[in-house]
Amino acid sequence: MCGICGIYDNQHIAGDPRELIGRMNRTQKHRGPDDEGFFAAGSAALGHVRLSIQDLSPAGHQPMSRGSRYTIVFNGEIYNFIELREELKQAGYSFATRSDTEVLLAAYDLWGEDCQTRFNGFWAFAIYDADTDSLFLSRDRYGVKPLYYTTQPGYLLFASEIKTLLADERVIRTVNDQAVVNYLVNGFVDCEEETFFKGIFRLPAGAQMKIRGNGGPEIRTWYTLPYRESVYEKLPAGTDEQFKALFEDAVRVRLRSDVPVGSCLSGGLDSSSIVTESSRQLAERTTAENGAGPVQVEQHTYSAVYPGSPDDEKRYIDDVVASSGVNGHYVEPTGDMLAEDLEHLIYTQDEPFVSTSMYASYCVMRLASENHAKVLLDGQGADEILCGYRKARVYYIKKLFSSGHPFRAVREAFLYLPYMRKNNSTLLADLSMLRQFLGKEKKDDVRRKYLGEAVRNAKLTRSYRNREGFILDDFSSIVLPALLRYVDRNSMAFSIEDRLPFLDMRLVEFCMQLPMNAKIHKGWSKAIMRRTLRMPESVRKRRDKIGFYTPESAWLTSHADEYRAVFEQKDFRASAYIDREKLLADWDEILHRDSIGLFRYLCLEKWMEIFDVQSS
Prior knowledge:
Radius of gyration: 24 Å
CATH class of the largest domain: Alpha Beta
Distance between the termini: 35 Å
Structural class: alpha+beta
Mean pLDDT: 91
CATH superfamily of the largest domain: HUPs
Number of strands: 17
Shape: globular
CATH topology of the largest domain: Rossmann fold
Helix content: 25-40%
Number of helices: 24
CATH architecture of the largest domain: 3-Layer(aba) Sandwich
């Protein structure tokens, strides 16, 4: 895992590329503290900071060149690089390193753009072609690794993080009004190609970019997720076995590393199944894969716990630790810790985020870093491919009724009702969600009344009104992209690579073809996972879903005066977006009844301050 950046400037007006790339590399040094590099030729200059995971020797240094034509900067992992290397050797290629970077570059030399379809992994990379003086950029299928860009007069910049682009002082820091409205009203982030910064964009997942000469960037989609929605059908023989085999192999290839691999562990189904399977595989190893590196047997896990809270998952975490024989590490986030870390957390994330739940992940990554971890496995993606969210159950019940399965619909509804309300949510929120997915129009969120006058009536560009396609929307634009941004920034802030077995392309495409009754069955979510994957029985039989839990309301209340002062300060930047007089007048009500909404206002104002962003 690394950080990449670069310039394409065929008019040579951006100034000394070494000086600018040097600033950009320093800004993203947390992504790669082990090494850094610079390359410049023709119209391009490339920068790289390295977190050494595969081939720890200096031979893995980037930017990496193949002959005099191609030079690459690469962030990510190609998990099937061993198999690809053997295929490339048969085609006449030889290799001087054990890195996946060299394999990627040879694959591009042989197959060109089609090489992307052969990779199983996650990545963002840029390749400069000296023969054509052109730049080619690519992002992985599901957007696990970030890639941002901005076009300035006469040149283009790209980088792994937005703050890296801001190292160029000519990049204007202006708020994207539409992104702010979507965020404050519906909590949507990372939904589109645009960001919270006007003029700064993210290359979409499964997309590529070419730039050459005086022309602007040419962007096209190279991958589209195959998706088939079927509500109920009999599963073919062997479906469960195929799912289990795909998951096990997804874990296996993600254990390929020249440094030890640990895991995040929440006590839920996703992380528990990963820890159980990875510890089993590690225990069975007798020789290191590919003949390189030490054999890893013991696995370390990292968890956030909240003693005394009814939503604390430590009892499930302890069951996984005991049954798997892993070495468990724990952190107890508090409101005092959040108040101390809030500015760095917002700086880490680059853009506003919805709630304090991301702070739990931040604390877990810091704990792992303190224990010298460099690679972790994590469970993101499972809810999206296996219908793990409550709204998926409501959608399934609705579709059973409309597709001629009323008995099954009534049964699922009856079995679901006792678990509809989460301990850390409100019944009102659940009922609002139910109305939306049962076909009732959702009225504008009450949070609109705290918007600034200039944007109070602005229309939203993202919503769940397309109820028939929300499962695919959650995966591709509304939910998963935000989760991937959170985990990338939190992990890389502490120089850790986070690997996601449930987003293995083979497993994703398999699950996106399954009927919904394979995923939701007799009141159980993620039914096929519960049937097939190894985990403690206490976890397998869990019906509650807690997610990234934090006692947010209590945390905000414990520092209420400090947070209120943010809105009372003379230099209040977000006045165009937040009616602070009305917010302050209703302060106590918001503090105790809508902590999520309050945190959005707080996060927006602090983000504008930290990044020196001006309203448009």
